[in-house]
Design brief:
The complex is a heterotetramer of chains A (about 290), B (about 575), C (about 300) and D (about 240). With about 290 residues, chain A is mainly alpha-helical. Chain A is built from 15 helices and no strands. Chain B is mostly helical. The chains are: A mainly alpha (about 290), B mainly alpha (about 575), C mainly alpha (about 300), D mainly alpha (about 240). Chains in contact: A-B, A-C, B-C, B-D. Chains B and C meet through helix 5, helix 6 and helix 22 of B and loops of C.
Chain lengths: ~290, ~575, ~300, ~240
C-alpha cells in the first residue's frame, strides 16, 4: 500500500501520536507503579511517595517473598501445571480439531460431535456436581485435578479446525491419492502447515493455565497445593474485622504489607512477561483466524 | 497465648515482625492431607514427654479408634521442627493418651473453610468430628447430619467441662435443639466484644482536657483533637475519631459511640416487654446526627467509607488520630503502633460515657459462634466429650507451666501456638477478667507470688513500665494494669453492659433476609454520616420492616418466649 | 459395502475423538446431571439422589428475592457497557494506529497496549486495589494533585460499575485493537488510491472506505458479544467488589456463588444458574444467527 | 618529697567537691524517692497511669533543670579549685550535668528535634542515651583520677571502683530492657533481672554522688598533711 495515502497533516499526526503514546502509557503505568512499589521501603509506600520510581530503594520485599516457602511452592506448582497441562491440551485439541475440520461427506458424524463439544461451553451443572464428579474420579487434592477437567479447550478446537480448513484441499487430496490415511494427512501435511496457529494456541493455553485460580482454590485440600494464582487470591483477601478476636491479632499483623504484595504480584507476572515477545509475534495470526475467518 | 505476648514483642521493629510473620506464613502447610495417623511407634516414643505431669486422663480407647476431621490454618499457624498439622503434640496426645487417632481429611486456608466444608459435606464427605458456625449447625441439623450428644455428655462430661460450659449462661442453650445436645459450643469470653473508649492520654494532657465524663465531652475532645494540633507538630494533620468502612468490629468501631446514645445497633434487646432490633430504634437518630456533624467538621476521615482496617491502622500508627472506640485488647494492636512511632503515646481506656444522666451500657454479643459436632452414625460420639474433658481438666485452667508449655505454647517461642492444631479449644469465659484481677492485686501488693508463668511475665512487664520508665510496656498497663481496660469489662459484666438478647440459631426469615437488611443498614449509616439527610434513617426503618424486618422481629420474639 | 468402506475410512477419526469424548463426558456432561438440583431442596449430604423434589419452588423463591431484579439489571448494565466500549475504543485505536507511519512506534504501542490482556484478574485485582485506593492509591494522589477530592472507585456504588467497565476495557482493548488492525490490513489499498484521485479528504476516506471495510468485523464481534450479555465477568467482580457496592456491583454469577457456596442454598443457586444458561443459550443462538446473516460468520 | 608527690584533689578548699557530692547524692535520693512514691501510687491504682506519667515528667523536668545547672556550676568550681589532670577530669565531668536535663526530655530531643528513628523502642533508646550522657563523662573523670600519678593511692583505688560501679549501674538496666523486650520476651530468668534492675536503676545518681563525697572526704585529709608538709618546707628554707 502506498504510504502517501496514509500521511496525516502534521498537527493531526502529532495529536494522533500523542494520544496513542498516552494510551500506551496508561497500560504501562500501573505495572511500573507496582514494580516501583515492590522495590520501595514500606514507609515510603504507605506514605504514598512512590510513583513509577522506587523510593528508598530496597529489595527487602523480594527477600521476604523468596524466603516464603509457600509462595515458592505454589510458584513451582503453577510451572508444573503449565508444563503438563499445555501438552495435554494441545494434543487433545489437535486430535479433535482434525475430525471436526473434515467435510460432512468425509465424516458424517461431524455435526453431531461439533455440537457435542460446543454444548459444553453453553451449559454447566454448577459447582457442586462438578466438584462431586471430580471427587468421584478421585482427583480431589491431586495435581491432575488441575489438568484433566479442563483438558479440552473447546474454543481452541474451533480455531484450529477453522485454520485446518483454510489449507487448500488439493494437498490432502493428492496425499490421499498416494494412500495416505487420516493420521498421515494430519501429522504430515496439516500440522506442519499450521505451525503459527499451533504456536499461538500453545501460548494461549500456557497463559490460561498460568492464570487459573478458582479450581486450585476449590479442589486442593491444603494450601501448600495451591497454584500461584490461588495462593495470591488468599493473600489479597482481608479478614472481616467483625469476626476478629484477640486471638486473630497475629493474622492482622501478617496481612497486607503493601510492598510485599506488590513484589508477589510482580513475580507472578514475570513468566508472562518472559513469553510475551513470542506471544505477540504469533498474536495477529491467532486473532485473525480466531475471529475474522474467511 | 501468642497474641498477648505479641503485645510486648511488638517492640521489635516492624520489619522484623514481618519477617517473623513470613516465617509463620511459610509453615502453614501440610505434606500429605491424608497422612496416616501418628503410628503407635511415635505414640510410645512420645509418652515419656508426659512424665512428671499430673494429667487427668480419661480411660483410653484400646484398641485406638479412628476419628476423621477437617480444619483450617491461617497465616499465623506455625509448627515446631518436624511437626505438621497431621502430626503434632495434639494428634500424638490424642493417640497415645486417649486412644483416638485424629486424622484431618483436609486443611485449607481459613478464608476457604466454609466453602470447602459446604462442598465436601454436600458431596457426601462428612467428617466424623468438625467445627461449624451457627448457620451450618442449623442446616446440618435439619439435614439430620448431626449426632445427638446428650447421653454421651451426661455420661462422660467432667466437672470442669460442665463448669466451663455453665459459666456462659447461654452456652448449653444454643447447642441444644429440641431437647437434644447436638454440639459442644466453643466458649470464650463474651464480654470481650464490648467496646471501650480509647483516647490518647498524652494528647488530653497536652491540651489540658479533663477525662471525658459524658458523650458531650467526647464530642468536644474530638473537636479539639481535630482543630488544636494535639500532637504539637504545628501541622493540621489530625482527626477526631477513627472509623473503618465496616463501621462496627473490634477496631475503630462505632458500636461504643452508639451505645453512648443508648442505641444498640445490630443486637436484639428487651424494650417494654418485647424484643426489638437496635438499629431501628429512635436512639440511633441523635447518634447519627452527631456523627454527621463530626464528618462535616472534618473530625472523621473523609475517606472512612473505603478505609479498611489496615488503612485505619496506618492512620493510628502515624499519630493522625487520638480517639477510637474498640475492644479491650486494642493496645496489643493497632494502638501499640502509635506508641512505637511516638514513645510518649499512651492510650487510656474509658468506660463508654453517656449522653445523659442514665449511665451508658456497653453492648456485647455471645462469643459462641461455632460448635464442635459429630457426624450422625459415628460409632464413638463420646470420644469428642473425652477430648473436651482432656482440654478442660488439664489445660485450660492449668497453673502448671510445664503443661502449658507442652500443650498451649512456649513463651520462649511465642510464634508457635500449639493449641491452634486442635479444634477442641474452649476458653474459660471469665479467665481474662480473673487474670486481670490477680495482676492488679499483685501490683498493689508488689508481690507476684501465685501468678502463673504467663501472668508473672505480664507483672514483670508492668514493673518495667512503672519502675524503669520502659514506656513500650504501656500495652500491658493499659489493659491488665490498674485503670486498664479489663477493669471496665468487669463493670460491663455487671450493670454497665447489655448482652444481645437473641443468641439462637438464625431464624428462617433471618437466614434469608438479614444479609440484605444488614447491607442496607451499613449503607444507610455510611451515607447519613457522609451528609445525606437524616430522614434517610426513617425511610430505612420503614423499608427494614417491610423487607422482612417485621417478620424477623416476630420470629425472634417467639424464640425469646421459649428461651427466657 | 460402500457404506462399510466409508465407515472404515472414518474409524481413525473416531479413534482421534475417543479420549476427548471420554473426558468431556465425564467432566462436562456428568456434572450436568446436577441441574436437577434446581428442582430439589438440596439437603447437605443427601446430594442429588437423596434430596426431596420441590418442583419449581426454587424458581418462585428466586423470583421473590428482593435483590434479583437489581442483580440482573446490574449484570446487563455492566456487560452492555463493556460490550459497547469494547467495540468503540479498539476501533478508534485501530484507526489511529493505522495512520501511524513509523513502524517502530506502531509496534511499540501495540506491544504495550495488549500486555494487560495476559494478566490474570487476580494480578489485576492486586494492582487495581492498590492504585485505586482513595487514601494511598497513586490515582487519587494524582487527582488530589490537581485538586480533585479522592474518588472511591471500588467503594462507591455509583462509580463501581464504571470502574468495572473502564478497567475491563483497559485490560482488553489492546486485544480488540489487533483484530481490527488485522481487518484493516485486508482492505484493498487501491480503494484509497481511487479515493485520493477523487480528492476525498482523510475523513471521507475513513468514513467511506475504512469503516465499511471493517464493518463486517465490527458487526460480527458486537453481535457475538450479545451472547455474553449475562456474563459481566465473575473473575473481575468477585475479586474487586464488596458489600458496599452490592447494590450496583452484584452480578448473577457472584450472587450464585454466594447463595450456593457461602449460604449453602444449592437448589436456589442452581436454579439461578440454570435460568442464566437458558437465557444465554437463546441469546447466543440469536447472536450466532445474526452474525451469520450480517457478517457471514460461521463457527464451522 | 613524699608529700610533694601525693597532692590532694582540691586546694585550697574541698568545699566544691563536697558540695558536688552532696548535690548529686541528694538529687539521686530525691528522684528515687519521688519516683517510687509515684509508681507506688500508680500501681495501687490511686492515680491513673496518665496522671502518673504527667506528674513524673513535670517533676523530673523541674528537678532536672535545677540539678543540671547546679551540677555544672559545681563541676566547674571543682575544676577551678584543682589543677593539672584533676582539673581536666572535672571539666570533662561537667558534661555529665547534661544528663539531669535530658531526663524525660530525651525523647522529644532525639525523635522530634533530631528526628532519629524510634525503631519502636523509643523510651529504651532515650533512657540509654540519658544514662550514657551521665555515665561516660564520669567514667572518663574517674579514669583520669585513677591514672593521675600525683593523686593519693586510696583515691585512685576508689576512683577505679567508682568506674566499675558507674558502668555497672548504667549498663545493666539497658541490657535487661533489651533482653526483656527484644531478645528473650517471656523468659522467667529475664523476669527476675527486671526485678533487680528496677531497684538498681534507682541508684543511678545516688552511688556516683556518694563516691564523690568519699573522694572529697579522703582527699580533704590529705589536704591537711599536704599543707603541713608545705609549712615544714617553708620553715626549713
Amino acid at each position: 500500500m502506498n504510504p502517501k495515502i496514509y500521511k496525516l497533516p502534521f498537527f493531526e499526526n502529532l495529536l494522533n501520536l500523542t494520544v496513542l503514546a498516552l494510551l500506551a502509557l496508561l497500560c504501562l503505568f500501573p505495572i511500573l507503579h507496582i514494580l516501583a512499589l515492590s522495590f520501595s521501603s514500606a514507609t515510603a509506600a504507605s506514605s504514598g511517595k512512590v510513583a513509577i520510581l522506587p523510593v528508598e530503594f530496597t529489595a527487602q520485599s523480594y527477600q521476604f517473598v523468596l524466603e516464603n516457602v509457600a509462595f515458592a511452592k505454589s510458584f513451582l506448582i503453577s510451572l508444573q501445571r503449565v508444563l503438563v497441562g499445555v501438552p495435554v491440551n494441545m494434543l487433545l485439541t489437535i486430535l479433535v480439531a482434525y475430525p471436526l475440520s473434515r467435510s460432512q461427506a468425509e465424516f458424517r458424524a461431524r455435526g453431531f460431535f461439533a455440537w457435542f463439544f460446543v454444548i459444553t461451553i453453553l451449559f454447566s451443572g454448577g459447582l457442586i456436581p462438578w466438584y462431586m464428579v471430580i471427587r468421584q474420579t478421585g482427583l480431589i487434592d491431586k495435581f491432575w485435578a488441575l489438568i484433566l477437567p479442563g483438558a479440552l479447550p473447546v474454543f481452541n478446537v474451533i480455531l484450529l479446525a477453522n485454520s485446518f480448513r483454510t489449507i487448500p484441499k488439493e494437498l490432502e487430496e493428492a496425499a490421499a491419492m498416494d494412500g495416505a490415511g487420516h493420521w498421515t494427512i494430519l501429522f504430515r501435511i496439516l500440522l506442519p502447515m499450521s505451525l503459527p496457529v499451533l504456536a499461538t494456541l500453545t501460548l494461549f493455553v500456557a497463559v490460561s493455565h498460568w492464570n487459573q485460580w478458582f479450581d486450585g482454590l476449590i479442589l486442593m485440600n491444603s494450601p501448600d497445593k495451591y497454584p500461584l494464582q490461588s495462593y495470591l487470591q488468599t493473600v489479597v483477601v482481608n479478614p472481616d474485622p467483625r469476626m476478629l478476636t484477640e486471638r486473630d491479632l497475629g493474622l492482622l499483623k501478617v496481612i497486607s504489607n503493601r510492598t510485599t504484595r506488590a513484589a508477589q504480584i510482580f513475580i507472578a507476572m514475570i513468566p508472562i512477561l518472559l513469553i510475551y515477545p513470542f506471544l505477540q509475534r504469533y498474536f495477529t495470526t491467532g486473532i485473525k483466524l480466531g475471529s475474522v475467518k474467511g | 497465648m501468642r497474641t498477648r505476648i505479641s503485645g510486648t514483642k511488638r517492640l521489635s521493629t516492624l520489619t522484623a515482625l514481618f519477617l517473623i510473620s513470613i516465617l509463620i506464613l511459610t509453615s502453614c502447610s501440610s505434606p500429605t492431607p491424608t497422612a496416616p495417623p501418628p503410628a503407635a511407634g511415635q505414640a510410645e516414643h512420645s509418652t515419656d514427654i508426659y512424665e512428671g505431669l499430673n494429667l487427668v486422663v480419661p480411660n483410653r480407647y484400646d484398641p485406638p479408634i479412628e476419628m476423621s476431621s477437617v480444619t483450617s490454618v491461617d497465616a499465623t499457624v506455625k509448627f515446631l521442627e518436624g511437626d505438621d498439622i497431621h502430626n503434632n503434640i495434639w494428634t500424638r496426645t490424642y493417640a497415645s493418651l486417649l486412644g483416638i487417632n485424629l486424622r484431618y481429611d483436609w486443611v485449607v486456608d481459613a478464608s476457604m473453610y466454609d466453602q470447602k466444608l459446604g462442598l465436601s459435606v454436600n458431596s457426601g464427605d462428612i467428617p466424623d468430628m468438625f467445627v461449624v458456625d451457627s448457620a451450618q449447625f442449623l442446616t446440618y441439623y435439619e439435614a439430620g447430619l448431626l449426632a445427638d450428644l446428650t447421653d454421651a455428655y451426661e455420661a462422660e462430661a467432667s466437672d470442669a467441662t460442665r463448669d466451663i460450659l455453665s459459666q456462659d449462661p447461654i452456652a448449653m442453650k444454643v447447642a441444644t435443639i429440641d431437647g437434644k445436645l447436638l454440639g459442644i459450643p466453643l466458649t470464650d469470653a463474651s464480654v470481650t466484644s464490648a467496646s471501650v473508649l480509647w483516647i490518647r492520654q498524652d494528647w488530653l494532657d497536652r491540651l489540658g482536657i479533663p477525662a471525658p465524663t459524658s458523650m458531650a465531652d467526647v464530642l468536644e475532645i474530638s473537636r479539639r483533637f481535630t482543630e488544636e494540633d494535639p500532637d504539637g507538630d504545628g501541622v493540621d494533620d489530625t482527626i477526631g475519631l477513627a472509623v473503618t468502612k465496616d463501621l462496627f468490629g473490634a477496631i475503630a468501631s462505632l458500636q461504643g459511640f452508639f451505645n453512648g446514645y443508648h442505641a444498640y445497633p445490630g443486637i436484639w434487646f428487651e424494650r417494654d416487654g418485647s424484643i426489638v432490633y437496635g438499629s431501628v430504634q429512635p436512639e440511633m437518630r441523635d447518634a447519627l446526627l452527631a456523627l454527621q456533624k463530626m464528618y462535616a467538621d472534618g473530625q472523621i476521615d473523609r475517606e472512612f467509607g473505603v478505609k479498611d482496617i489496615n488503612q485505619v491502622t496506618e492512620t493510628i500508627s502515624q499519630g493522625e488520630c487520638g480517639m477510637e472506640f474498640g475492644v479491650w485488647w486494642n493496645p496489643y494492636h493497632p494502638l501499640n503502633l502509635s506508641q512505637a512511632n511516638d514513645p510518649d503515646a499512651y492510650w487510656q481506656a474509658y468506660a463508654i460515657p453517656s449522653i445523659d444522666e442514665t449511665p451508658a451500657k456497653s453492648q456485647y454479643t455471645s462469643a459462641i459462634a461455632s460448635f464442635l459436632v459429630v457426624r450422625e452414625g459415628y460409632e464413638h460420639p463420646e470420644a469428642l466429650i473425652r477430648m473436651v474433658n482432656f482440654w478442660t481438666d488439664n489445660i485450660v485452667r492449668s497453673q502448671d507451666d510445664n503443661v502449658r508449655n507442652l500443650f498451649l505454647g512456649n513463651l520462649d517461642n511465642p510464634d508457635v501456638v500449639l493449641y491452634k492444631y486442635t479444634p477442641v479449644v474452649l476458653w474459660e469465659p471469665t479467665a481474662g477478667i480473673k487474670t486481670g484481677r490477680q495482676l492488679r492485686e499483685a501490683l498493689a501488693k508488689r508481690d507476684p507470688t501465685g501468678l502463673n508463668r504467663e501472668a508473672l511475665w505480664r507483672y514483670r512487664i508492668m514493673q518495667a513500665y512503672f519502675e524503669q520508665g520502659t514506656k513500650e510496656a504501656w500495652v500491658e498497663v493499659a489493659t491488665n494494669g490498674p485503670n486498664g481496660s479489663v477493669v471496665i469489662l468487669e463493670d460491663v459484666l455487671g450493670d454497665r453492659g447489655l448482652m444481645n438478647r437473641f443468641y439462637g440459631m438464625p431464624t428462617p426469615a433471618m437466614a434469608e433476609k438479614m444479609p440484605t437488611l444488614s447491607t442496607m443498614e451499613s449503607e444507610m449509616i455510611t451515607k447519613i454520616i457522609m451528609g445525606e439527610p437524616i430522614d434517610q434513617f426513617d425511610r430505612f426503618v420503614e423499608t427494614w420492616h417491610q423487607m422482612g424486618g417485621a417478620e424477623i422481629t416476630e420470629e425472634v420474639n417467639q424464640w425469646a418466649a421459649s428461651n427466657p | 459395502m460402500v457404506l462399510s468402506k466409508r465407515f472404515a475410512r472414518e474409524i481413525p477419526l473416531y479413534i482421534m475423538l475417543a479420549p476427548a469424548v471420554v473426558l468431556v463426558l465425564i467432566y462436562s456432561y456428568a456434572p450436568m446431571v446436577g441441574i436437577v438440583m434446581a428442582f430439589q431442596r438440596v439437603l447437605p449430604g443427601k446430594g442429588i439422589f437423596g434430596s426431596p423434589w420441590v418442583g419449581i419452588e426454587n424458581f418462585i423463591f428466586v423470583a421473590k428475592m428482593p435483590t434479583i431484579l437489581q442483580v440482573v439489571w446490574n449484570t446487563i448494565r455492566i456487560a452492555g457497557l463493556k460490550a459497547i466500549f469494547g467495540v468503540v475504543v479498539p476501533v478508534s485505536v485501530a484507526l489511529m494506529l493505522n495512520n501511524v507511519t513509523s513502524h517502530l512506534f506502531k509496534r511499540t504501542v501495540q506491544t504495550i497496549i495488549y500486555l494487560p490482556h495476559f494478566l490474570s484478574w487476580i494480578i489485576m485485582a492486586g494492582i487495581l486495589v492498590d492504585i485505586l485506593s482513595p487514601s494511598e492509591g497513586i490515582v487519587n494522589q494524582m487527582l488530589g494533585a490537581v485538586g480533585i477530592q479522592p474518588i472511591f472507585f471500588l467503594g462507591d456504588d455509583k462509580i463501581f460499575p464504571w470502574t468495572m467497565v473502564f478497567t475491563d476495557v483497559w485490560k482488553s482493548f489492546g486485544f480488540g485493537t489487533i483484530i481490527y488492525l488485522a481487518a484493516l490490513t485486508d482492505i484493498d489499498p487501491t480503494l484509497y488510491e481511487a479515493a485520493v484521485v477523487d480528492g476525498a479528504t482523510r475523513w471521507q476516506q475513513t468514513l467511506h472506505i475504512t469503516l465499511p471495510g471493517i464493518s463486517g468485523t465490527i458487526i460480527m464481534l458486537s453481535t457475538l458479544s450479545l451472547g455474553n450479555i449475562l456474563n459481566a465477568g465473575f473473575d473481575q467482580i468477585f475479586n474487586l467488589y464488596s458489600p458496599l457496592v452490592y447494590s450496583t456491583g452484584d452480578i448473577i454469577d457472584t450472587l450464585v456463588f454466594r447463595t450456593g457456596i457461602i449460604n449453602n442454598q444449592y437448589g436456589i443457586a442452581t436454579a439461578v444458574g440454570l435460568l442464566k444458561s437458558v437465557v444465554s443459550l437463546l441469546l447466543i443462538g440469536t447472536a450466532y444467527k445474526l452474525a451469520a446473516m450480517w457478517a457471514d460468520y460461521r463457527l464451522f | 618529697m613524699l608529700a610533694k608527690r601525693e597532692q590532694p584533689l582540691m586546694h585550697p578548699s574541698h568545699l566544691p567537691l563536697i558540695l558536688l557530692g552532696t548535690a548529686i547524692t541528694l538529687y539521686g535520693l530525691i528522684t528515687a524517692l519521688v519516683g517510687s512514691w509515684l509508681s507506688n501510687q500508680a500501681m495501687r491504682g490511686l492515680i491513673t497511669p496518665g496522671e502518673y506519667r504527667s506528674q513524673l515528667a513535670s517533676f523530673e523536668q523541674a528537678a532536672g533543670l535545677i540539678a543540671g545547672i547546679l551540677f555544672f556550676a559545681l563541676f566547674i568550681l571543682c575544676a577551678v579549685h584543682s589543677s593539672g589532670i584533676v582539673r581536666v577530669a572535672f571539666s570533662i565531668g561537667a558534661l555529665a550535668s547534661l544528663a539531669p536535663l535530658l531526663v524525660s526530655r530525651a525523647e522529644t530531643l532525639l525523635f522530634e528535634v533530631i528526628g532519629l528513628p524510634t525503631m519502636s523502642a523509643g523510651s529504651v533508646l532515650a533512657g540509654a542515651v540519658t544514662t550514657l550522657v551521665f555515665a561516660l563523662p564520669l567514667t572518663i573523670l574517674f579514669i583520669l583520677l585513677a591514672s593521675g600519678r600525683r593523686i593519693p593511692k586510696v583515691i585512685r583505688w576508689l576512683s577505679l571502683l567508682s568506674i566499675l560501679v558507674v558502668l555497672a549501674i548504667s549498663i545493666y538496666p539497658i541490657y535487661v530492657t533489651i533482653l526483656a523486650f527484644l531478645l528473650k520476651p517471656g523468659d522467667p530468668a529475664v523476669g527476675r533481672m527486671i526485678e533487680i534492675s528496677s531497684q538498681i536503676i534507682k541508684l543511678r545518681f545516688l552511688l556516683p554522688g556518694i563516691s564523690f563525697l568519699l573522694l572529697s572526704l579522703i582527699s580533704a585529709r590529705y589536704a591537711r598533711t599536704y599543707a603541713l608538709a608545705q609549712v615544714d618546707a617553708i620553715e626549713t628554707a
